[in-house]
Amino acid sequence: MKRSVHPSRTVVDVGEFGLIDRIRRQLAAGPKVFGAGTTARRSVVVGIGDDCAVLRGAGRAKYLLYTCDPVVEGVHYIPDTSPRRVGWKAMARNLSDIAAMGGQPRWAVVSVGLRCRTSVAYVQELYAGLQSAAKQFGCYIVGGDTTHVSHEQFVVVAL
């Protein structure tokens, strides 16, 4: 049976938590390529719906927390905000999610969308802010991605 999607419903109509609930149900009902009893599926303690996913770690009493939050120009900061402050905010949002779950942040990957005319100095200051916030909690930036955008810039941190 094919699910019908009401074309006039929008994100604002259902709200953030309504949208998350729909995504959760869609993914739970989706195809189970590796079967329902896979190790990966059983390792999820808390999945979609909280700020962090809680995953079983190597030991019985060990858990891994995973979070990912974007910071978007014009939504989370105004264009003339200092890049160091933007970087700090992007990292701090994610550090806060880990702390709220009682975790210790270890590693971060950072993806940025930058306009082609963005100065290298801006990017270096952005990363100085990211690193400054991360360093206070013993968290290391270990990778990420860069891409170009035509309009609003963004920073996505995953811990």
Sheet/helix structural class:
alpha+beta
Q: Compute the gyration radius: what is it? A: 18 Å
Mean pLDDT: 84
The unreliable regions are none
Q: In percent, how helical is the residue content?
A: 25-40%
> Strand order across the biggest sheet?
4-7-5-6
Cα shape? flat
Annotation field: number of helices: 4
Care to describe what's here?
This protein has 159 residues and is of the alpha+beta class. The protein is built from four helices and seven strands. Helix 3 (83-100) packs parallel to helix 4 (120-135). The longest helix is centred in the N-terminal third of the chain and has 19 residues, at 11-29.
What is the secondary structure topology, with strand pairs?
Elements: H1 11-29, H2 39-42, E1 44-46, E2 53-56, E3 63-66, E4 68-72, H3 83-100, E5 107-114, H4 120-135, E6 140-148, E7 154-158
Parallel strand pairs: 5-6
Antiparallel strand pairs: 1-2, 2-3, 4-7, 5-7
